[in-house]
Amino acid sequence: MSPMPAGGGAKAKARQEAQRARILEAARGCFSEGGFHGTGMAAIARAAGMSQGLIYRYFTNKAAIIRAITDEQREERREALAGIATCSELVDKLLEKIDAWRESGPGGSCEGAFDAALFLEVSAEATRDADIAAVVTAQEPQIWVDFEDLVRRSAVAAGKPLDADAVRRRTVVMRCLVDGLILCYVRDPGQDREVLRHSLQEAISSLCL
Which among 120, 137, 200, 209 is least buried, having the fewest CB atoms inside 10 angstroms? Predict the structure, then answer.
């Protein structure tokens, strides 16, 4: 767990949280644009407008920042999935967020945008760094639960409730579709959005969702 400066009352704690959020926001932009290995603490410090020494008061090293970002992504994903009623809605929402990310440009920040580059960077780093791999792997059980809940809600909304095994099988397919959508959009920015959307919606319909 990253260190936090000690002492102070409510005002000091609020400032500490604000500083921490500022560092993470700067790091997100740097990592998205330059990758984890292409970004040093000096670059994060410049983007955050603070000294490296101050950053080390909040995070022991760059790996600690990456872990904090993956934790944030987990919570953001959970909140987003909890607010979605059907798998069809998930596709539309995800396309909207990826569009916002693309419009913000490399390393840009747009409120409500899903950072596809950062998502893929975390996945890639998990293949190189054992600590990051452990963090990502530890998140998987909850991700499956959240997606299964969505598939279950979607099936009920379609008037075709599913048993547990059917929910699990369709969840596997949905996760493949979602991850594939992100990769497809990143690798082929010229992809026809509506063709992509309708193709995914047809696939979802075939799953009775």
Answer: 137
One-character DSSP codes across 158-183: TT----HHHHHHHHHHHHHHHHHHHH
Q: CA 106, 98, 137 angle in degrees (round to 5)?
A: 90
Asked, for residue 1, whether it belongs to a domain, the answer is no
Kindly report, residue by residue over 168-200, the tens digit of the pLDDT.
999 999 999 999 988 888 888 888 889 989 999
Task: Name the pTM for this structure.
Answer: 0.81
- Whole-angstrom distance, CA of residue 5 vs CA of residue 65: 16
| pLDDT of residue 100 exceeding 80 | yes
Count of domains forming the chain: 1
Tokens of 206: 């075939």
For residue 82, being part of any structural domain is answered with yes
Q: How many CB atoms lie within 10 A of CB 127?
A: 9
Beta strands in 10-166 (DSSP E): none
Give a yes or no: residue 5 inside a domain: no
User: Which residue range is the domain that position 58 belongs to?
Assistant: 10-206
What are 178's two structure tokens?
A: 């979602």
pLDDT tens-place string over residues 8-37: 688 889 999 999 999 999 999 999 888 888
Residue 203: CB atoms within 10 A of its CB come to 16
State how far Cα 84 lies from the chain centre: 16
